[in-house]
Specification:
It catalyses: D-arabinose 5-phosphate + phosphoenolpyruvate + H2O = 3-deoxy-alpha-D-manno-2-octulosonate-8-phosphate + phosphate. InterPro entries: Aldolase_TIM, DAHP1/KDSA, KDO8P_synthase. Keywords: Cytoplasm, Lipopolysaccharide biosynthesis, Transferase. The chain is α/β, with parallel strands linked by helices. The protein has a single domain, classed as Aldolase class I (TIM Barrel, Alpha-Beta Barrel). It is 35% helix and 20% strand. The strands form four sheets. The chain has an eight-stranded parallel barrel, surrounded by seven helices. Strand 9 and strand 10 form a beta hairpin. Helix 7 runs parallel beside helix 8. It is globular and about 40 Å long. The two termini are 19 Å apart.
Length: 272
């Protein structure tokens, strides 16, 4: 049985690789617009369907001193204006059930953070908005157990649900990606591979998370070869100065080359 659906002009689970990308957090309206325009030019040239991603609030930062974003009201308004100006579908994280209806006014996809993938009330509230729901697999969850998250969404009347792999806790301060999980979860829903959070080293950099961005292309190539439906990449034009997750972000200048390689891998392994 097909789990395919569409998010605006973006086909999900229909055999065409799509991209979710943008800066981790909304740093300013000007910055997200700059990033959206730059990424849209690249994806348009390459023919890759594209969803813009950025968060209005990063509620799970390691340190209480870390930048969190503009908040739900201003952040949702920024994403809504960006969508209207660019025509791009948009995605943001939600952290509380009460945020879902508000965020849904400005975005096409509500994303459930990995740490919250078991939160029943949050999953149901997101599903009931009618927006597509992307659930990140918890770093502590077996891939087959994500069927429960999928059921919480679908049994709330929303069939547009996808799952995202972002690595599994491997000891302290490290994640590892089990490529088998992509095939296991793909039996449940379309699957997206998060190439940037998968190279995170959680809480390993003195109150913030570190990362190994040099491995983003390697893991993304492997995931596309394994048959994922989409790729999630946090992209920044100046990772060293990013206000969130800069240590594991993909530098904008490297995005086109990475995507070209992923398209070549998909064409070789999964010819349409």
């Amino acid at each position: 049985m097909s789990h395919a659906f569409d998010i605006g002009p973006v086909p999900v689970g229909r055999g065409q690789l799509f991209l979710i990308a943008g800066p981790c957090v909304i740093e300013s309206e000007a910055h997200v617009r700059k990033m959206a325009d730059a990424i849209q030019r690249i994806t348009s040239d390459l023919g890759i369907p594209y969803i813009f991603k950025s968060s209005y609030d990063k509620a799970n930062r390691t340190s209480v001193k870390s930048f969190r974003g503009p908040g739900i009201v201003e952040g949702t308004a920024i994403l809504k204006r960006l969508k209207e100006a660019t025509g791009l579908p948009t995605l943001t994280d939600v952290h509380e059930p009460g945020h879902c209806a508000i965020a849904a006014e400005g975005v096409d996809v509500l994303q459930i953070p990995a740490f919250l993938c078991r939160q029943t009330d949050l999953l149901i509230a997101a599903a009931e908005t009618g927006r597509a729901v992307n659930v990140k697999k918890g770093q502590f969850v077996a891939p087959g157990d994500m069927k429960h998250a999928v059921e919480k969404v679908t049994e709330s009347g929303n069939a547009r649900v996808s799952l995202t792999e972002r690595g599994t806790t491997f000891g302290y301060h490290n994640l590892v990606v089990d490529m088998r999980s992509l095939a296991i979860m793909r039996q449940l829903a379309p699957v997206i591979f998060d190439g940037t959070h998968s190279v995170q080293t959680p809480s390993a950099a003195g109150g913030v998370s570190g990362g190994q961005p040099e491995f983003i292309p390697l893991l993304a190539r492997a995931a596309v070869a394994a048959g994922v439906d989409g790729v999630f990449l946090e992209v920044h034009d100046n990772p060293a100065e990013a206000k969130s997750d800069g240590a594991n972000a993909l530098d904008l200048k490297n995005l086109k080359g990475v995507l070209e390689t992923l398209l070549a891998v998909q064409a070789a392994v999964h010819p349409r």
